[in-house]
């Protein structure tokens, strides 16, 4: 079965039942099992969770969770990492499932077998610490879990040899296919595997749950002897208030009940029934305590770090578990390019050379005298990335942090820095990530991977500071000069290393006889001793695609075909020959894939061709699962569809050209299945053509595999599959979007490198030129052409939308301009789709600062909707509200006030006072009234909105906080700084908790709060806040952003009041100039800036400069807001008084 959660049974809900008595039962299997077989009797096919349990426990939804449970991951040195990652995946997937199914906060009962219990314990420890504002949704599992039933879980220790023997006895299942492509080495060293550390982590929170421990009473036949797979003493944690029982079965049979009479069934079901009855009451009470307890604990975060709350299942009060480690800012982050292969072979001399270069006598240098850089270069497939991952793993204790910059493209570089920023608790921007790295003050490691582009500024990626060790992997030998400590070229492995790698991957048992070694030598030599090629060759032999002795014949055949397929010069370089040899190993795998002739291998073949046109790293599985879901919905039959529409749909379907989709998207609605994608991924992974990252639900290809996959296509095939790759990506995007902005934003961020890669091969037209005559002809004689044009417009709209959400406004504007122009020609300006396109383009133009163009488009939509729908229609009012906001942002206060007053009046009459559109328009009007210095009216508008939003949205909703911020500033302008301070402090704290301390909205609140502090005379506190906030704003936004400029202006005011006149003048002058450069001279902000400069010079006795700034301010006021605006009036009055004073002074000079 595929990984993830599967629902086996939905809870029964009776009429009138509010669902409060329901529970979720979540089953987690152990090693050598999958999510179905673990609970299914092999003789009868009865799955007791699905077929028996619901007869007794009717209030439970039953889920089973699948994951990669191969011993290859859990019985090696990397076991702790595998357990941690599977635990984190369980927490994330269970939360997502419960969120989407509407069962969040429902009680959870876990049923675990074997090492599945270890994963569950680790997941609960992880969930218990997810209390920070941005991730506290993951706290759900910890708070909601009521009971855990452990079946043969090794809480203390287990024997590695028993599980390996059991693996050979068990039949093949899906997890044997979902591997990283690497077989398990025969382990060396101690046979015992210890889990006491995980149990020690779990013990402090164990009183949170009811626990029932079951042990196996029958031994398993293993290698001509009988033994317990998990010893009964290890299967039980001997503490009070727990239940214990034996089951008369072997380890693998103890969870396969086939009837009510099976040993242990009644004991198990009675416990689940009892837990299901008690859990709703206890968990409901627990949640009522959890939220306020967490808020109370957060309020003390300044004095100590939050370590998580726990709840005793036998008590009514939450407690702090002393032994749960708190997440501190100095927590080590370990993010190498890939997981290190547990059985990495060879390169010992190179590891020693690199170690000696970076470390002195094996000791860390603290602090290091300088930044250290080292370059690792070599052709693709030589193992550079795995070498760095292995080095990072081996030196994990030597570094406080390990990060990776994926340097294959500018987008992956930017994304890497953004991810580092988020790990550091900062806003996810490139600049913030660089800043975070610059602040690390202990030795840490940065790996810059796949830095192959010769035009790249490699030095720009090097972090400042003296604490970094930097490793660079590249195919470009010219980058060697960037290594301050030197460089190493990775070529082929040593012959003995290459043979060992090949035969190990082929799973050929030791001892190896001479004939086996000789065959290994011949294969290794043919493949140039390259690690990637050897791994693929070994995998082909392991998969029984061929025998060891036949491999070279198969490889030679593939190479001959490749040679005929490619034209080449008479003499080729050694590297070209080597690439051809490696390509041939991939061709062997592809031949096997195509020979199978099954739906699964067909899908895998299609997927391989598609992803060859995406970027080779971090391809989200969500591209394909979303595409399947969206395709399924779009082809779903419409229930009770009118006859005319049904006929129109049938005609359109007949006229529509064949869709460029892979086979797994071409099926009928009821046959589309996202698990076909999962199976296709597992096929490619089993052939080592991709590597899967379960933690992030992405997969990657080696650059050489990626190049081969595309090079293996003919020119005509490339054109076809480039189109299929693009349309598949487009199918994963919905317009309008249906998910949350946060979730969609993350998805668009992840697909952007793949969209860029697609557009390089699939040329989407930037404009569609057709005359009205040709359009009329096409409507009559070429309706299929119109459908093609429609699809191109939709694809351009989707591309523009994704680009806009990622801040690439110039490209987005080009795409959306084409959409707008095409729709206007096709549908006319009065069609709703044309107007939506115009508004979308206006939003992008606003992001580019082209507000005048945006306002023209918005005005056209308002006029058209007014004419078609009337001024009181909701869509008209929406467009009017957007237009009024744009006028205000552009400093056109007259126009903004006029249209906003009309909008509010019509919205109240048509939609009512409490409608969200009415409230939003009234809030915007309040801001504009404040710009006219009508502060009492502004405060009244915001009070009205705040009261309504507190009732409808809640006191901490982000929209409520926006209104509270607006009201606080209006109250400040009315002279009540203390009330304003209280309100703005609430806004700032809530935004910190919900959005993060460096989110732009949080920084706005910080700037406003500092302004209030200045009014109150708290100058030192205001200075501290502003200095930090300006630096954060420059990282998260940019130096010219409005919020940053406002912060600088306020800091200048602080300096002035502190008597730091020179600093204040320099900062204020530069800030006003920046306003004028970015906002334009006519903008009221520039008028206000000149007024503030004039005030500054008045205070400091420089009448001449004060007069000059008054005159400049009035010139700017005349451009837009006029002298009738309060700012113009203040400037005129100040200028008049200054001129009078200046005139008196001149007369006195003359008299003297």
Structure, explained:
The protein has 1152 residues and is an alpha/beta fold. It contains 43 helices and 21 strands. The strands form 6 sheets. A 7-stranded mixed β-sheet has the order 1-3-2-4-5-8-11, with helices on both faces. A 5-stranded parallel β-sheet has the order 15-16-17-14-18. Helix 14 crosses helix 15 and helix 41 packs antiparallel against helix 42. The longest helix is centred in the first third of the chain and has 34 residues. The protein is globular.
Question: What is the strand and helix layout of this fold?
Answer:
Layout: E1 4-9, E2 23-28, H1 48-51, H2 53-56, E3 60-66, H3 71-74, H4 79-100, E4 108-113, H5 116-128, H6 140-144, E5 145-151, E6 157-159, H7 160-169, E7 192-194, H8 196-202, E8 210-216, E9 220-222, E10 225-227, E11 243-247, H9 265-298, E12 310-311, E13 318-319, H10 348-358, E14 372-377, H11 384-394, E15 402-406, H12 410-423, H13 430-438, E16 444-449, E17 468-474, E18 487-489, H14 495-505, H15 514-526, H16 531-542, H17 551-565, H18 574-595, H19 599-611, E19 619-620, H20 622-634, H21 643-655, H22 675-686, E20 691-693, E21 698-700, H23 703-711, H24 715-731, H25 741-761, H26 772-781, H27 783-805, H28 809-827, H29 832-847, H30 851-869, H31 874-889, H32 893-911, H33 916-931, H34 935-952, H35 958-973, H36 977-995, H37 1000-1016, H38 1019-1036, H39 1042-1057, H40 1061-1079, H41 1084-1099, H42 1103-1119, H43 1126-1151
Parallel strand pairs: 2-3, 2-4, 4-5, 5-8, 8-11, 14-17, 14-18, 15-16, 16-17
Antiparallel strand pairs: 1-3, 6-7, 9-10, 12-13, 19-21, 20-21
